[in-house]
Amino acid sequence: MNWIDQGFLVSKSRYSENSIIAELYTFDRGKVSGIIFGGTSKKIKNYLQVGNKLHINYNSKNDNRIGYFKIEILNAYSPFYFDHKQKLSCITSAMNLIKILTAEAQANKKVYSLIEDLFNLLNEQNWLKKYIFWELELLKLLGYDLELENLVEKNLEDNKTVYFATSYTEKKYVPNFLIEKDLEVTDINILLSGLKLVGDYLDKTILKPNNLNYPNSRLNFLNSLK
Length: 226
Hints:
8 strands; 7 helices; elongated; de novo design (two linked rop proteins); 3-stranded antiparallel sheet
């Protein structure tokens, strides 16, 4: 089987002394794995950064065996953020969510477009707020819409509007900007509370029911913001 496509590098792991196994999220085929021979060489490894966009030529002699990629760089996104620890950690976390949550060889062009959007929002001043909505949109596209607007109740406390969701065991406050989406947010603690809320939903609704661990990359991203 042979095909040509383009895609984002989602993950990589060492395969042999000179090669790696890469996971790419492609335009036409979704998430696909393959071997990159010579992937540890100086010529190639410099642009094999998670998040980079690549031109892909895939070859496989047998559908039941892993094939191999020949690649060329299209857009080297990640190196722009080597000096910005938080944004680089954000890219790693986002790509790991794509790795964990998407199925092998199932194309979803909306998810592909969402990955492209990630690198646009990182250049905006309110990038962190937009990234939180990026995660929510990813979950929605994969069938896990949180639908916060339909879950929360609204109240006045100390003359301030608050939103909360209640269950049998707890009352959880929801940051106002997740409901009133045009609100400007400058307090990092408020943004962190939004990220943690999405993370709790991810963990309880998707990860634990599927016996998946909470990703360290997302924990590292949260820690980088503190």
